[in-house]
Amino acid sequence: MRTSRSSLRHRLTTLLTGAAALTALLVAAPAHAADPPLRDLADAKGKVIGTAVTGSKLTGTYGQIAGAEFNSLTPGNAMKWGSVEPTRGTFNWTEADQIVDFAEAHGQQVRGHTLVWHSQNPSWLTNGTWTSAQLSQLMNDHIALEVGRYKGRLAAWDVVNEPFNEDGTYRQTLWYNGLGADYIAQALTAARAADPSAKLYINDYNVEGVNAKSTALYNLVKSLKERGVPIDGVGLQAHLILGQVPSSLQQNIQRFADLGVDVAITELDIRMQLPATEAKLAQQRTDYEAVVKACVAVSRCTGATVWGFTDSDSWIPDTFPGQGAATPYDENYAPKPAYSGIATALGGTTTPPPTGACTATYSVTSQWNTGFTGQVRIACSGASLSSWRVNWTYGAGQQITQAWSATCAQTGAAVSCTNASWNGTVPNGGSVTFGFNANWSGSNPLPTVTLG
Ligand code: G3I
């Protein structure tokens, strides 16, 4: 019997409304298989493109992106004094070691961060009462131990962090108050002794443009150089606000370079008032591109490190309520326009990456009381893949029991599926599909999938 189109549509509609959970949802993630990763673009220019990382997160998609896209890592917190010596004489190097090991396994540099700072120190240090001789000893010992531990393995150290106030006077800190401004020279000298091959930096924020604070830093570096104190570079943190890249950024980088030191953009992020809109993200792309371009334009600018590559791992929302979206990847690890801004500045494609060129579509094709069958379709248009991995996280305890046309592994809620030996290639204009059975109970919400 021939089924009429309208009765077919009716049956389909009934099926779908009768089981809303069966509704297929397209969640697309841009793939960049056709673009060189940022680290390849940076390598070709002899520049660093780095990211701050959290050691415990270096697995799954986070680890995959950190390893594939960046040629340098900075521990976001793991090497700070409070992290490594929470109790006097008791050391915890676990996360710092993990990051250095990961970097070495991925052919990446490490930027050590940070040795002498007023913040994130252990309470035994900040609450103690010390003579200047004791303080000096504590600082020198800390530097000797930490820099010595990673001797020969780190490209650079932020030896002194944030020594200035906004008006260019010295910040009143444990170190300045106890040792005077010369704590900076002492720290640099101790670091050089502990690892002669690491580049030694002073790092600060709001010193990206020419202003009172950056001029104080400039004068300090000039006098350290004149005195023969070991100083190799200045770090411009670059915690910036949308639309406010200082117009004198390149000029400022150049004046430090002219002093005979390297310059690194060390903690780049560009925050905005939430919610992010298309217009704000476009401005952010322009801003990221401008910052990285200013660095690329000056040969002594070694490169740029972003302070977390994903909005899910950024300090901004905690510190500036209502603001965020400051990094080049969104919370689901999809590259934002800012990613293209960085790529463009590094000499990559000047058109936006092929967003949506390859997409993964997750759908539930049938569902019964305890189980369901799902499928994922990977389709490419204007790009192609030679291998693929699709990741998602279940939100309601769903559990995969069997998969076909892909190898799927589930750890907790996290599912990761890779191509079978015969269907890794997805040509431009083509698609591949894989399927699975899974258990559910209560509800079966559709996950967001990412394609890597
Ligand atoms: O580790 C504890 C955890 O045990 C606890 O459950 C949790 C609860 O809040 O806090 C965790 O510590 C947090 C730590 O980051 C690790 O996530 C601290 O509260 C939080 O204050 C700390 O923030 C760090 C911040 O430095 C402190 O100033 C940020 O992650 C880190 O990105 C940020 O980095 C600094 C640079 O070192 C220097 N330049 C400025 C930059 C931004 O502040």
Give the secondary structure arrangement, pairings included.
Elements: H1 5-18, H2 38-44, E1 48-53, H3 60-69, E2 72-75, H4 81-84, H5 94-105, E3 109-116, H6 123-126, H7 132-149, E4 156-161, H8 174-179, H9 183-194, E5 199-204, H10 212-227, E6 233-236, E7 239-241, H11 249-258, E8 262-273, H12 278-296, E9 301-306, H13 316-319, E10 323-324, H14 337-345, E11 358-367, E12 371-380, E13 389-393, E14 399-404, E15 406-411, E16 414-419, E17 431-439, E18 449-451
Parallel strand pairs: 1-2, 1-9, 2-3, 3-4, 4-5, 5-6, 6-8, 7-8, 8-9
Antiparallel strand pairs: 8-10, 11-12, 12-17, 13-16, 13-18, 14-17, 15-16
Give the name of the CATH superfamily of the largest domain: Glycosidases
Q: On the 0-100 scale, what is the average pLDDT?
A: 91
User: In this structure, how is the largest beta sheet organized?
Assistant: 8 strands, parallel, barrel
Count of β-strands: 18
The proportion of strand residues reads 15-25%
- CATH T-level fold name of the largest domain: TIM Barrel
Shape: globular
What is the percent of helical residues?
25-40%
Figure out the total of helices: 14
What's the CATH C level of the largest domain? Alpha Beta
Structural category: alpha/beta
CATH architecture heading of the largest domain: Alpha-Beta Barrel
**Rg of Cα set:** 25 Å
Number of domains: 2
| Separation, N- and C-terminal Cα atoms | 45 Å
Low-confidence stretches: 1-34
The strand line-up of the biggest sheet is 1-2-3-4-5-6-8-9
